[in-house]
Amino acid sequence: MADLDPLFTAAKTAMEKAHAKYSDFPVGAAILTKDGRIFSGANIEIISFPEGWCAETTAISHFVMAGGGEITDICVIAEKKDICTPCGGCRQRLAEFAPAEAKVHLCTMEGIVQTVTMADLLPHGFESDVLAKTN
Fold it and tell me: What is the pTM assigned to this prediction?
């Protein structure tokens, strides 16, 4: 998985910047696009817990603000939990922008330990095309 080392490193570096003073559960995520760009994010908590942003949500916002693209891979890491998957809300958020075949890499502090697809994580998620207006 050497070609995914930069993605893992971006997720881990983001996790180290997490603002998780209420849960003490830092999480990092990184998104890789087909053209090689990486967008990372960390969870950002506020005193009105559980409000705030998940790491995946923060990474998605950077991705969107940079113009988007085709997501191929997503990496998720949590300091205190091996194989931390995105929460339900983030699974749906990721599915909004990533295709079903996008790979989601679940990590320990040492690296990627398991890979699944978005379809594996969210087999019956909402599909945006059902809400498309027809004229």
Answer: 0.91
List, in order, residues 6 or more apart from 98 with CB less than 8 Å away.
Answer: 31, 71, 74, 118
Contact assessment for residue 10 and residue 37, using Cβ atoms and an 8 Å cutoff: no
Average pLDDT value for residue range 104-129:
90
In this predicted model, what pLDDT tens digit does every residue of 61-96 receive, in sequence order? Answer: 999 999 999 999 999 999 999 899 999 999 999 999
Residues 56, 79, 110, 127: which is the catalytic one?
56
Beta-carbon contacts of 25 under 8 Å, excluding residues fewer than 6 positions away, are 43, 78, 79, 80, 81
For residue 70, what is the DSSP state?
Answer: -
Please list, in sequence order, all residues whose beta carbon lies within 8 angstroms of the beta carbon of residue 66, skipping any fewer than 6 positions away: 37, 39
Alpha-carbon dihedral angle through residues 87, 89, 93, 98, given to the nearest 10 degrees: 40
Structure tokens at 33: 């696009």
Q: Which pLDDT does position 134 carry in this prediction? A: 61
Structure tokens at 55: 């790491």
- Told to judge if 16 belongs to the known catalytic residues of this protein, a careful annotator would answer no
Distance, in Å, from the CA atom of 18 to the CA atom of 89, rounded to the nearest integer, reads 19
